[in-house]
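Appendix B. Raw example, untouched.
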Amino acid sequence: MTPTVEPNRAPAIVFGTDGWRARTAEDYTFHAVRRCADGVAEYVEARGEQAKGVVIAFDRRFASEHFAAAAAEVLVARGIPVALATHAVPTQMSSLEVVLRGSAAAIVITASHNPWTDNGFKVKAPTGAAAGADILKVIEAQIARNADLAIDRRPLADAEATGLLERFDPYNDYEAHVRKTLDLDRLRDADVSVLVEPLWGAGAGWISRLLAGGRIRVTELHLERNPYFGGVNPEPIAPNIDEALARLAGGGFDLGLMLDGDADRAGAADEKGTFIHQLEVTGLLAYYLAEHRGLREPVVSSVNNTSMVGRLGERYGFDVHEVPVGFKFIGPKMIETGAMLGGEESGGFGFGAHLPERDGVYADLMLLDLFLRERERRVWPVSKAMERFHEIAGPSYYLRTDLHFERAGYDAVKRRIVDGLREAAPTTLAGQAVVRTQELSTHDGYKFFVTDGSWVMIRTSGTEPLCRVYAEATSPATRDQLLADGETLARGG
């Protein structure tokens, strides 16, 4: 049998809803990272902003610090100053640093919640938000041009000796920034026990350090670096967080707080180990800002997020703006509208008073503050506070199913799913009439609403070979049937 020999090729690098991600050592190589960094350099130079420099940060994945160094070598070779993190840090620290320093952009080496085999390349705008289409267009065009070119590099030791490279630790700046909008001393003095699950990621140690020195008792799991992430995807949902949920169910804790692999996504659970799903967290944060902080600025919500924000908006008098999936849409809309909150289904939340970019550490602290304020109103424990919240915001039974496909041929699968839904949209789902069909503005899926307000959404991923089916319903039975019907549609049944 003649062996198959793959031709040498430069990988196609396309930025999806949250940067570019790929399999390490297959498509995600040092040369590919240098190509991406060259694209960022081209964007900075085209704007004449070389002197502003670029911030570079990285997570705890395999070789992330070395990929970050490779990106830095490209930028300093083109005379662009670089501020490089001294160690793995949460992604949002780059967003804060780019704002505080007035930098031209930021690069983060991370694949967020992707499997441990992957790594990624994110770009931040000068506002701290995810880079939008205007920035990515320039970067992607340069990447397309440099596939076969030798990319200049400059040794970091040389750049550091000449002042072109600076190394930074963002903790002190971050704590000071958080204190502007959140009373950390009040949180530290709370007589409660909190379990924190960072999933071996870059957020390990951050919440416990920010809350250290008071009466609050913080127990943190999985502080050590483990690029294998314990064999789970570092996304703060079941079954990845089953160990933390079991610890909570065993008693002794008042609240559980979770983070994803790069700590820009948040998760939570009550004292019984009942998971508080991501759509509930969106609603809780909107409720917290409106009810406890008295804010009435808009909320920006991704199309796959909860209907509860609309009901809360009607109750409290704030506008809700719906945008496509991804913080590259949410962040700019937050800035445009002066929003107090931006939220996505996957557990990412940005705050107008903090950063227009996801920050799981800050979101978890806000949740802690919310439940402590509810306790002052005698709405305690957390499970009781959740019951009271749903009396106000309405029901939300939510679940998401990820349908995985082979990488080879995935583009054809995407076309088949989207074209099939366009040509033969369902008229009934879960035994109810479909009353509204919404094509996603990104043209990668559809959302279907049924009579009682429940909905199911089918969307193909732009960063992974999978199709996601989401459902939010008025009952568990309706949710489960919507998911089953959505999966059948996605698989072509």
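End of appendix B.
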